Amino acid sequence: MNRMLRPLLTQIHSYLMQPRIWRLLGFASTLIGFICYALSSSFYQLFGSWTLFKIVAYSIFSIIICLIILFPKLWQQLRGLNFEAHMAFFVLIITSVYSYFSDKAMKGKPDAYSVTSYAAFAVTSLSLQRQSKSHFGFEVDLLYFFLGCVIVQFMKIELWLGFVGIGFSYSLIILRSCLDAPAKNRNQRFQDKHHLVVQVNMNPLQVNNNINNNLVSSNIPQKAQQPDEHVAVEANILPSMEERRWANLAVVNMLKCNLTKYIQDKVHRIPEILINDHNFLIDELPSQLVSDLHEKVKLMVRTGFEKECVDQYCTWRREFLDLAGKELSIQEIEEKRRIKTWIKVSNVSLKILFPNERRLCDRIFLGFPSVADCSFAQICGEFTTNLLDFANGFANGSHMLNLLPSVLQVFGALHELIPEFESVFLDQFSVSLRSEAATTGRRLRKAINGMFMQLEKLINCDTSQVACPGGICPVTVEVMNQLSAVGEFGSSWLSAEVTRIIALLESHLEAKSKDYSNPALGFVFLMNNERYIEKKAKQYQLDKILGNHWIRQRAAKVRENCEHYRRSSWEEVLGFLKLSTEQIEEAESMKKKLNLFNLRFKEIWMDQSAWFMHDEELREEIIASLRKILSHTYGLFIWSFNRIHGKDAHECIKYSVLDIEDLLKDLFGWRDEQLAEMKD
Fold it and tell me: Under 8 Å CB-to-CB from 295, ≥6 apart: which residues?
């Protein structure tokens, strides 16, 4: 049961450790408190009926208090010059005066609004105390005052209800105690700021010949740098392992809560509030811990324990990064999912974790910039190298075409992160990480160029046969499938390569079309493949890098080949339907022309009904165009034929206009059964 509840309790604890949660809770409870108190009998008995002046004054006072609760950082600049002492005294006077007049004015039993307002103000006091950077010096006293008011209010209603007030008060006090427990433990370990606690992972004789292997402690003299002074050595400058794990887990859980939708692919971008807030790590860690660590680190560095100090601090922070990497990533076997996971972890690391680690290093090692730089490089070095090793695995692999989408995806993600590498790794100790990222990017780009060369080789060596008359060439399908990732993961620098590859493919298809004995079928072949290229380019969003003008050129090529097809197939048939200006000659030749038309139309219909048209929309466009031209021309011819031959005309007319239109619908049907029926 404990194991089942532990993750839930950890999650709840991580929420309750976030200052922003208490800020919002305090703001909500303040609003509830002021609204309920304004409606309560306590207000009426103490201040009388509402007037315009009271409404304005009460509203202004409520707004000021709400702003203090919602934006506590704005009031930090007022601290100092005994501000906390004056505020505590002021609150003491206010609460005392209020208690005096309240007890004097109150008559009868309080209502529910009164009890609710005092309970809400108690929660407000606790929330103000939980925001670690906004202490005014009176929060705890104010909490106890309002809890006392809650108990008294319950007891005035019914004596036994006092137990309800006691239970509520006990719950808030215990909650405050539990949340403050880690900070109290740390304060016990760092009571004296002049007491140095160091973990030495080296031979004690190398530190000081007078320091034995036992753990001892002493006060550091003011001139600790003198060689004749002794430095106290104890086990650890950091919190205990359990405290470190708890602190790390609380921050990681906070990150998971804010990044859940991003990790689960419900959104494609990290929330801007996390990217822009480079202080969230300092804010989430207890402020006393950060301050104490800075003091101890300062003493260690000044007394010659710089290496030990850096080693311990880096170990702690690497533990956090490792935990964050495991918790934020999903172990996936499928390569595509592993790449997505790598991209998400890389984005979170470069845009959130590393900038916050940089800020924390600067805070802990304030006054020692070179030590801060060295520590930051050690903290992020191994984690960054592991991220880049994943990308290098694609760059160093074989230039197989099936890896092109994966390599493009990894390269695109790394290319977008280069500005983050450059902004995060600026100092002399971490510049190698920035260089390593740039080198990995160049390797990936070289690998992509090699794969495009393989694509070019695939086109040049193509000897495949089309499965159906005028159908899609297999190499067209293969090339466009390989280019599918370019639109999604590629960038503008690939536009020249993609344009070159498709131009090479089109030249290859044009040469292949010449192999057809029937020129019209060759043009159908080109139409099919050009339309396929156009549709896939749109589907794969290649227009993002090639431009809309390139897409329009493909559509123009399809129309051009469509016109070539019409002329090569149907120009001869339409020629049979041309009418002579001489009626006598026409009467003698019209029957011959009609017979030639019937014969040739049947041959073309039988051939082209077995041809293939990949795009149904293009097929309908071609048939509609032929029906418009052929029906009109054939209709005029038949009308003249009937006029000249009279009642004998029907013996020579094999097709009506409607028959022609119906037969044209069967073009590009690739239906062998209809051909058999026609022959019969």
Answer: 190, 193
